[in-house]
Amino acid sequence: MVVIGCLASSAVLLFHSCPSLGSAVAVGAAWVLALGLISPPLVAQPAEPDRSGRDTGEPDEGTDADDSERVYDDKGRAIDRPKTPPPKQRITPPKPLSYVAPRYPDDAKKAGTEGHVILKLTIDRQGKVIGAVIHTPGGHGFDVAALEAAWDLTFAPARLADGTPFKAIIKYRYEFVLPKPERREPELPAFGVLRGQVLIRGAEEPLAGAELEVVASGAPATLVTTDAAGEFRLPDLTPGGYQVTITATGYEVLAVVETVERGGELIATYRLNPELTGAVLEVFVEGDKPPREVTRRTLEQREIARIPGTSGDALRSVQSLPGVARARGLSGALVVRGSAPFDTQTFIDGVYVPLIYHFGALSSVVPTELLSKIDFYPGNFSARYGRAMGGIVDAGIRSPRSDGYHGLVQLDLIDARLMLEGPIPLLDDWTFAAAGRRSHLDAWLGPVLESAGASVTVAPRYYDYQFIIERKWANEARFRTEFFGSDDGLELLVNQPSPGEPAMTGDVGMSMVWQRLVLVHEQQLTDRDHLEAQVALGHESIGIGFGALFLDLEAFSIFGRAEHSHRLAKSAQLNLGLDVLVSTVSWEARLPAPNRPGEPANQPWSTTNFLTVDQRLSVLQPAAYIEAELTPISRWRIVPGFRLDYSGGHDQFDPNPRVNTRFDILEGFPRTTAKAGVGFYSQPPQPHQAQEPMGTEGIRSNRTVHYGLGVEQTLTRQIEASLEGFYKQLDDLVIEEPTDSGSFIEYSNRASGNVVGAELLIKYKPDERFFGWVAYTLSRAVQQNGPDEPEVHMRWDQTHNLIVLGSLRLGHGWEFGARFRLVTGNLVDPNVCNAADQQCDPARINALYHAASGAYTPIRFGSDNSERLPLFHQLDIRIDKAWQFAAWKLSTYLDVQNVYNNQNVEGISYDFRYSARVYAT
After folding, report:
1. Residue 27 belongs to what H/E stretch?
2. Are 307 and 805 contacting, i.e. CB atoms less than 8 angstroms apart?
3. Chain-centre distance of CA 404, in angstroms?
């Protein structure tokens, strides 16, 4: 697929919006031209399989319903073969709703080997395959291929005479037959053949599962379904005219008339239009593995692309989920359940990265088109993850496409990017993907501010890049190499320093550069064993300069992770893993010295002493974990785990036991699920906090205990609700305190705190016309910096956070979406009291004059985080219009953020004497 984008006027191409402070409007257009070079794969043919699913008595949870045999023909029609006398009560055995073709093993194909495998499948009350074992092996790699395909089969569940569904065990036969050359028998009359492929119009993607009904005048209809490559074949058609009707869920019906000639073969390509134009150009079918955590939030592709205010950026959509507080304007910080941003870890393909958003949170560091999944865990995450007290965000990069070369070019007012993927020439089974992006705000925003006479000239810019090569083997093995990184820079030229900070002049610069080189190997070793291993090399560089102040940091890291999963039994799996981080860090800085006891806080830099730091640090943080996934009964899942972390910086072992559980109170529809979890989590102190000369000897890891209790309820086929309460007990929190001399700072574990709250999510799952949800988070986060210190709100505490969003397809390519947010204001440390407060004393002395520098030193009013800013509320809307043409697609949109231009408060500004204050918006 090739996607070509152009900029028209102030257009934003594809699904990108142009956010800004106040009210922002972006209009976009994209021209999509799709080409596909598709080679049909060799697929094992469906057999007339043995399948049984009839009980000899009353069914129950423990009954093996393997007392009858059922045969299916190639049209899906069932023929029962009772193996025992008829049961006492009539039942309806499971009926297949789909056929999943297994992969034909390469070695068997090359050797010309054929065979079959008979499986025993356990079908639950919803028709899902919950167990699969080999009954009659076939060897030659057929067993693994059959088991892999069987898990994606779906059935209509077995039912009693009164319609009650029950669990059943059936035999299912997969036949592995190589295509035979057709022989035309001379004594048979000549027939014609109709074959071809069904594609998604515009995307030029094969459409699997489309149904073709072929009818000749006066003859019964012939039905055929497209395979995984979207292909079909109808042999032995009587010559003449045929009405061909093609249907597929979510696509417009296509009806054509074809003529089949005697002895001829008609090859046709049909393209179906989506019923209502959406943003999904790629189709992924993925089975959800049961979660190892209490709560995992998942968004579908269409939701990601259409949430107003996110520009269609997958990682930015996380900020609209329960448990994620609103970050300060353009900061891009992830604040999860009251924890500080650095308490939440972010990963790409399981490898830690320092940032997932560019400066200003205009976009994430990995394009949406390269992502296969985003796992977000707000708390009680499994033993696989550690070194974090907040939450986890893990974004997975998908495999490059192998069905031809596909590209994308995008240009908008914020940045430009390109992507190319496909097979590697001359290398069988190897594929690649390459992508890059560069912002161009610095090309036009700086000159605009300069011409306007602004006192500050801003020139932000960012890059990101990704390169992936991958090979897949027939034995469920995969090897891939990834190289990705990000480069952000921001330069401010201050022409007129503030009267309150006369030293703040000249260039102010910030940069953040990081890269990761990742090697991944994944393999299904046996039917019961799976191995995943990865090693990554990392580099990070941070530079900050404010006049005479600076910070330069560089780090080199090695990350290693391996996990071996072994299925002990149908209801038990054991996961063993290693997680290692080795790093060296060097940093130099000239920073303001901490305040001495009794000195006022928040002094201007013109009145402050400075510290010079030059430090080399080493980090060794290995960890091992073990986790079991237990299913004592079909409705109950328990995941106990234990993780042992070691931190060499302060020579400490941190044992972290955890357990999560889910129980289906009501199975089937409507489903009611209770969930709970408790776990210990540790986060080591930063290297400079634990190692000399800046660190404090004897400092310990931050500790927290997560408690979670909730319920999930299916209300209708489309609406589901989730309510969860959480509590986090925080202990041994690392805080900094000035030494008596004031020349250095020291660290201690004297602080403690807790976070308590609840999350509500009512979600309407995407259908042909609508998706949306209501997310509400209620929380309270407090901290105490010592046994005798007062309890204060944490900096990131937000009591209420309400998000209401939805998107409606209006027809004819039109779609309208809106998002409304209502959030409690952030906390600040005021230097001047609020005149609207009855306790405010207008005669209070708010600052001290420093004659040597001519600056005023503020005297803070109140305790830490003692004032809350006004309520935040904002409405964003998005309007899309799309036109679908034969081989390309044109899309435009209008994205307006902060529609009614509410002046949301982000902080407090003071005059240089601190005699008055105004809200900064």
Report:
1. strand 24-33
2. yes
3. 26
Q: What are phi and psi of 55, to 5 degrees?
A: -85, 155
Mean pLDDT, residues 411-422:
86
Q: Residues of CATH 3.30.2420.10 domain(s) within the chain?
A: 50-176
Superfamily assignment of 2-31+397-920 in CATH? TonB-dependent receptor, beta-barrel domain (2.40.170.20)
Please give the Cα distance from 94 to 167 (Å, whole number): 9
End-to-end CA distance of the chain: 44
Give the pLDDT confidence score for residue 402 in this predicted structure.
86
- From residue 510, alpha-carbon distances to 459, 493, 552, 555, 841 in Å are 11, 12, 10, 17, 39
170, 306 contact by CB (below 8 A):
no
Classify domain 292-396 by CATH number: 2.170.130.10
Q: Which residue has the higher pLDDT, 395 or 515?
A: 515
Domain with CATH 2.40.170.20 in the chain: 2-31+397-920
CATH superfamily assigned to domain 50-176: TonB (3.30.2420.10)
CA distances for 551 relative to 223, 540, 554, 809, angstroms = 70, 14, 10, 50
Higher per-residue confidence, 855 vs 35: 855
The answer on pLDDT for 299 being more than 70 is: no
Print burial letters for 401-439: b (CB count within 10 Å at least 16), e (below 16): bbbbbbbbbbbbbbbbbbbbbbbeeeeeebbbbbbebeb
- For the chain, state the CA radius of gyration: 31
Overall pTM surpassing 0.70 (yes/no): no
Instruction: Please state, rounded to an integer, the average pLDDT across all residues of the chain.
Output: 80
The tokens describing 466, both together, are 């990704």
* Nearest C-alpha neighbor of 831 from the set 798, 854, 857, 868: 857
What's the CA gap between 379 and 641, in Å, rounded? 15
CA distances in angstroms from 536 to 317, 353, 521, 559, 581, listed in the order given: 27, 11, 12, 5, 10
- Taken in order 394, 395, 399, 400, the sign of the CA dihedral is negative
* Among 169, 227, 215, residue whose Cα is nearest residue 44: 227
- Per-position DSSP letters for 647-677, written without gaps between them: ETTTTEEEEEEEEEEEEEEE-SSS-EEEEEE
Give, in words, the CATH class of 192-272: mainly beta
pLDDT, residue 744, reads: 64
CA-based nearest residue to 802, from 317, 261, 320: 320
Using the structure block, give the residue that is written with the tokens 């190589």: 178
pLDDT recorded at residue 887: 60
| Torsion on CA atoms 220, 225, 230, 231, rounded to nearest 10 | -50
For residue 285, the model assigns a pLDDT of 27
3-state SS track over 104-119: CCHHHHHHCCCEEEEE
Count of CB atoms situated within 10 Å of the CB of 239: 16
- Nearest alpha-carbon partner for 461 in 477, 446, 439: 439
Split at pLDDT 50, 70, 90, the class of 1 is very low
Look at residue 684 and tell me whether its pLDDT is greater than 80.
Answer: yes
Q: How far apart (Å, rounded) are the C-alpha atoms in residues 509 and 442?
A: 14
pLDDT digits (tens, 9 = 90+) for 341-372: 999 999 999 999 998 888 777 788 988 888 88
Dist. CA 833–CA 829, nearest whole Å: 10
Measured CA to CA, the distance from residue 342 to residue 335 in angstroms comes to: 9
Residue 452: burial class (beta carbons within 10 Å; 0-12, 13-18, 19+):
exposed
Residue 84 has pLDDT above 80, yes or no: no
Pairing mode, strands 265-272 and 192-200: parallel
Longest dimension (CA), the chain: 113
- Residue among 750, 910, 882, 876 at smallest CA distance from 812: 882
Structure tokens at 453: 């006479």
The dihedrals phi and psi of 153, each to the nearest 5 degrees, come to: -70, 150
